[in-house]
Amino acid sequence: MRRVLAILAILGLLVFPVRAEDRGCVALTFDDGPSGRFTLRLLEGLRSRGVKATFLLCGYRIEDYPSSAQAILDGGHEVGIHGYSHRDMGRMSYSDVALEISQTLALLPGQEIRFFRPPGGVVTPAIEQAARDSGLAILHWSLDPKDWACDDAGTIVRRVVEQAKNGDVILLHDMTDSSVDAALEIVDCLLARGFCFLTASELARANGIMPQPGREYHALGQ
Known about the structure:
By secondary structure, the protein is α/β, with parallel strands linked by helices. The chain is 43% helix and 13% strand. Strands 1, 2, 3, 6 and 7 form a five-stranded parallel sheet that branches. The chain has a three-stranded parallel sheet with strand order 4-5-8, covered by helices on one side. Residues 1-22 have low confidence and may be disordered.
């Protein structure tokens, strides 16, 4: 498997040549999990590459896959929340959004949670206020290859590698083989081009950004 990944990385270099101006740091973020084998395979791939990511977790899936959620934490990755039910929050009242947040936070005791990503990136005054009152910044993304709608890993990789720049927050999912394959190849290609990978909090800090509760963030760079 490692040999195959190495070959893919070399092929990535042939397609996407190294340029000095491409160097920078980005954050990989994964929505909708945790899942079972997909999350665990992704974590092993990230571990072998020395890369940390940020996982925006759904409360009901933490309950469904507690061992995967624990594996994310044990791997030293950052966790944020994606709501409890993954329902559309655009029509929810403040109290309903606040409940979604509090239910999910309760499943991650002792963790320092900084980011909340509403499903679909929808933000209303109720969502903004609930995030503020919960002490969470709203994390969007600056680069979305729409891996949830594409089962071709190569296409997903190209959509990211051709556009990636310093400070990007990359949106992916740990829910299918194609997404996991693409995520690991993205790592290989961008590492080869001189990029580094940080968690969302690390990326913000590296660029002098102090995320504020209730405020929205897309890219985390200058």
